[in-house]
Amino acid sequence: MTAQDKGVVIVTGGASGIGQALAQGLLDEGWRVLGIDVQPDRIDAARREMLAADTSMLRFAQADVTDETAISEIVQDCEAAFGPIVGVVNSAGIARDIPCLDTEVDIFRQILEVNVIGSFVVARAAARHMRARQAGSIIFIASVSGMRGNQGRVAYGASKGGVVTMTQVMAVELAQHGIRVNAIAPGPIETPLTQVVHTPEVRSTWESRVALRRYGRPDELRGTVGWLMDESRSSYVTGQIIAVDGGFTAMGLPGPWQQQAGTA
Ligand code: NAP
């Protein structure tokens, strides 16, 4: 790494929604970015859409985050040919909105596999390299559904609750190696995922429960990620779950203007 070279941040789910926006934000702030995503077509589209002033700063790898062998190889190749990994943003994830009594065990397992195990696989692979350098910042994208009982989220909410606890455990264990581990818990964010999962009724309910009365944009998470990634600005922050949720988790008794659903 040269003096100006900030190192590589791995962004899983980096070819869509929140992950893509965060990857672009990190590029804009001078990090090199290795995006990992599962669909080749989406990776090609993201590559075209993303503006890396210097295209040598952005790479993509196609893999399923639950594939331990593939992730281990990607991380090794990155260290050897792209640069030292200084950060991870674990944004790859899947969601379903299903009442608990209708939730099949198979779908529950699938959600846990991607959201919890997949995030762990990537974080562990990167942390093993960070340990040697005694530095690094790992960010999990959790969810407010991992902090509150949101109807329809028995599997998704449990998976994100698992991510919350995983963040705290890894922060405690990896502190001795100079690695900080935090999570961001977004509220409803306008992405391809919510466009599929959120019906008009669900959308209207979210808008009535968010103090700011609107969905967030993926780019509204960039500031928190940039801050957590930058050791000089967040060196004493680890093990935290930071809600970026328009006030959803803060909201108690709403004002009259907040009770009119769908008027955001
Ligand atoms: P998104 O637009 O669907 O982006 C997620 C990306 O991850 C997609 O490209 C997806 O590919 C990919 N992915 C899924 N499973 C994968 C796997 N096994 N291996 C590698 N890549 C995989 O979703 P998003 O809304 O940006 O969500 C990003 C993260 O934020 C998720 O963890 C989500 O739970 C969390 N989150 C989102 C919101 C929200 O309101 N949007 C709120 C709270 C938390 P496919 O499309 O092929 O699945």
Automatic annotation (TrEMBL):
This is SDR family oxidoreductase. GO terms for biological process: fatty acid elongation. It comes from the Bacteria. SUPFAM superfamilies: NAD(P)-binding Rossmann-fold domains. Residues 7-187 form the Ketoreductase domain. GO terms for molecular function: oxidoreductase activity, acting on the CH-OH group of donors, NAD or NADP as acceptor. Transmembrane segments: none annotated. The lineage of its organism: Bacteria, Pseudomonadati, Pseudomonadota, Betaproteobacteria, Burkholderiales. InterPro entries: KR_dom (IPR057326), NAD(P)-bd_dom_sf (IPR036291), Sc_DH/Rdtase_CS (IPR020904), SDR_fam (IPR002347). Pfam families: adh_short_C2. Belongs to the short-chain dehydrogenases/reductases (SDR) family.
